[in-house]
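User: Hey, quick favor. My workstation is busy. Could you predict this chain's structure for me?
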Amino acid sequence: MTRKKITALLTSIVMFVMVIIPSASVASASETMRDISTMELVRDMGIGINLGNTLEACGDWIDGKDTSSYETAWGSPIITKEMIQGYKDAGFGVLRIPVAWSNMMADDGNYNISKDYMNRVTEVVNWALDAKLYVIINIHWDNGWVNKFPENKTECMKRFEKMWTQISEQYKDYSDYLMFESQNEELGWETLWNKWSGTDNGKAESYNLVNEINQKFVDVVRKSGGNNDKRHLLISGYNTGIDVTCDPLFKMPSDPAERCAVSVHYYSPSTFAILEEDADWGKAQSTWGTEQEIADLNREMDMMKSSFVDKGIPVIIGEYGCPTKNKEAESVMRFLTSVCEAAYSRQMCPVLWDTPGGRYDRIECKMADAELNKKLCEIAGSTIKQPGSDGTTSVTYQISELKKNSDGGYIVPLGNNAKNLTKAVISLKVTSSENSGWFCGGGGLTFDSVKTADGTAFWSSKGFNYDGGKEKILINFDGKFADEEGNEFDASINCKEAVLVDWWHSSEKYPEGGDDVSCEFTGITLYFADGGSSDETIIGDVDNNGSLTAADISKLMQALIGKVTLDETEFKNSDMDSDGKLTIIDLIRLKNLFI
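Assistant: No problem, here it is.
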């Protein structure tokens, strides 16, 4: 068998093994369930945060060909393991992951969850478990099909049961660090009972349906096998409102394992916590924190404590938060910290609602407001891990520091540690000189790469898109690069410089009305793993001058016949197959770079 065939076979074996063997988090997820109560588990969670507007993003307008089209539809970048680790580093103990399982589901009445979508959710769940976070997954709004329960109960219950059967099967061997939540906020229907109507007409019917759905959830999970007979479950309150969930008509389901908590949300008063501008039902308020407002907060938290916690039923505030637009910054800080403290001090777990561009910076992988982060963690006594303590280093270039090439692209120094580049954050300003109603564009970071399998060199790029108002672009480097034809390979960067380019623009006035879109790059920050060492291997750069030329081939030939001696860095650069020695095979692979 030729060496090329051997290499291909080994590569295939490695890929096969990676597919059939679960990640480390799956292995750890298969641990036995601990002998702790749900109350103890909820307390161990500390404080939490939501991965909002991401895996629950949905809509008929989304081009749903792959999971990423949904994941990014509501403004989120593609989620990475680093982002998930950042939640743990910021001091959070639980990550709530809302999910729209209906995405990519065939419209055939069978309600089979897409394998691709299930796998993507599982990947994110596994990353969170790897980070030692508790995880809560639910059925979220899902395009609102739950709202149809009153008029089509049989079909909706079938769908609900089938979905939870599949979810339960997928995660049945996971540890008690994974919690299932029956639903989000939709259990409770104004078509049956409007709490603002002043009457109780239909109230009992609506509550009975909520209770029946939650009981179905528990029954499905408990009979699904594995660890699910003891899994801790989160029961959605009536519309997750505190007053209506504390109503005697709301009943916790019967559970043989007696491992259920209840979930409510806190967005009160809605004129502050929801409204950014005046609406026909209320006037937006910009401040919060009067004696009466604080008293109202404590009254509602006391209501949850006496109705549930004091009776041995744990409580998770699955969402709380408020916008920042048209709000006083001090009031926002006061509201968020007050709600967190009021819940946590009463033995409840508060889980902050967060979306892209919100409290947590998904590009920088840290809380956007360090002071808020500090105050929240002080409430729960959790520790914030300082950035850079994992060995990651970064370097920032202002655009004025960068030279341009002959095509007008900005030359970005990568140094000798290019192959350990993990991400780049590009700062930019996007404007429209003609005030177009919509405008967007795209660019890329280009560089030379080398295939892991055979050392073949190729040109590659990481493209990105932007639109009006965009201030930061995130580019992740995961060891997979595409060539000019779009073919993707396991590869590493094999150069000391990249080029930042602005490729295209589009708007309602372009091209007919001219190019009215302006993209101004202002800076770029590069993040490197492993401390940013400057003596990293540049594959094929035998003479270590930062570029690949025929001189590298000549020098390696001379080294092989003993005419020259290579220093340590030159030797590493020449060892094309990384076997610790120089042979004719290294020379052949080096020559392949020039073919």
